[in-house]
Amino acid sequence: MNEQEWIEFHAKEGINKNLLKWFLAYAKSGNLDYQTIDISSEIDTTLTYHEQKAILKAKFPISNIELIAKDQASKIQIEHEEQQANLFYLEHLKQEQETLLTTISNDKEQKTEQYFFIAKHYVKSVIEGHTNCAILYSQAGGLGKTHLVLSTLNEQQKKLNQEYVLTTGYTTPLEFYNQVYKNKDKLIICDDVEGLFTNVKGLALIKQMTWGTAEGGKKGRVVEYETTSKMRTAPEKFEFTGRLIFCLNHLPFKNPALQPVLSRVLLCRLEFSYATKKQILLEIAKSPYKDLSIEERNNIVETIFKHSDETTIEFNLRTLIKAYDLYLYSQKSLPIFEILAKELLTKDDDLTLIKQLMSSDHPVSYQITEYKNQTGKSRASFFRSKKKIEQSLKVSNLIDVGSETFKGEV
């Protein structure tokens, strides 16, 4: 494939021709073989031309071209590093589970199942093979999505690398395609791989993997990836009989290309109000943690509540773990712990201002003007922040598991 054919090939995938021409010249200046790069998997079409150039320059710096080529050629080393990273990440999650989050499902004193009822059953539906794919989504991290998935897999006695695999962090569509091929008959847990959902090829792959075709039959889904890159280790086309669970903090809902994917999967939104998060922390405080008594755990939770509100940046399950450990560090001195906890519970300045303005008797027009004057931001930013506050203030409809009533917020 010559240079012009290469440009035309990738332009059909929606990539700016000027960007392709620039990258071709850039690659030549660094003696980089452009045909070894699957450029479409490196491009986020939602970004501007200059932002895309910056990403490509950072990904393929001229001074490191030889090193990059060696890294690309060393497939065995790459696979080893991926495996070690997954094992390290899984061990980290297991340690966190042992300290707190496994007790969420095991402690009969708790009633946290009402908050994760739908999420857990969506996960079980995929694990048991009734559904091809589920997405657990929450804008805020630290709500226990990955922990819920792993603890449910443990309950089902599923074994890592035999029945399921774990992939986490940034991955290109081509890397994802290769990995799915290696595990085409397994359950694949994808944690924090939002980049796939902002890429045209990434979305196309997920569509293929989540819905059957006549060619693939009832269970199988035919997946294909056409590229000139030598980094593709999987065949151009294969049948995927596995399943997928995604744990995500970001989804480009305004992107029309996302909608066909969402129509093929079970989507569970874990977007809890501030009041609901408080209820969850109160339930979790019933569970043992190291040598803390129930009275101490309740005091810690009350201290968190005292210094937090709807504008607190990090208010989640991880916040509670950090607070527990700070309390132990302070040798169980509540005054010292309270000073440390206040620093842990930092607040968003924009949201704090919006909350103050919303509490005033001033009309919205005045609030907007005051917000713009104090922050230098736009009217649209005011309404985005206002919406966040309103969502944090909403009242949740919780599931009564006994009567099988569903939770409206999830």
Keywords:
8% strand; Rossmann fold; 18 helices; 4 domains; two-stranded antiparallel ribbon; disordered C terminus; alpha/beta; five-stranded parallel sheet; 7 strands; 410 residues
Note the topology.
Blueprint: H1 3-11, H2 17-29, H3 39-42, H4 49-59, H5 65-73, H6 75-106, H7 117-127, E1 133-137, H8 145-155, E2 164-168, H9 173-182, E3 187-191, H10 200-210, E4 221-224, E5 237-240, E6 243-248, H11 259-262, E7 266-269, H12 274-284, H13 294-306, H14 317-329, H15 334-344, H16 349-359, H17 364-375, H18 379-393
Parallel strand pairs: 1-6, 1-7, 2-3, 3-6
Antiparallel strand pairs: 4-5
Helix pairs in contact: 1-2, 6-8, 7-8, 13-14, 13-15, 14-15, 16-17, 16-18
Global structural class: alpha/beta
The side-by-side strand order for the widest beta sheet comes to 2-3-6-1-7
Total helical segments: 18
Query: What are the low-pLDDT stretches, counting only 5+ consecutive residues below 50?
Result: 64-71, 97-108, 395-410
Gross morphology is: globular
Name the CATH homologous superfamily of the largest domain.
P-loop containing nucleotide triphosphate hydrolases
CATH architecture of the largest domain: 3-Layer(aba) Sandwich
- Average of pLDDT: 82
Task: Kindly describe this structure.
The chain is of the alpha/beta class and 410 residues long. The protein folds into four domains: 71 residues, no CATH class; 195 residues, 3-Layer(aba) Sandwich (Rossmann fold), CATH 3.40.50; 71 residues; 45 residues. Helix content is 51%, strand content 8%. The chain is built from 18 helices and seven strands. α9 links the parallel β2 and β3.
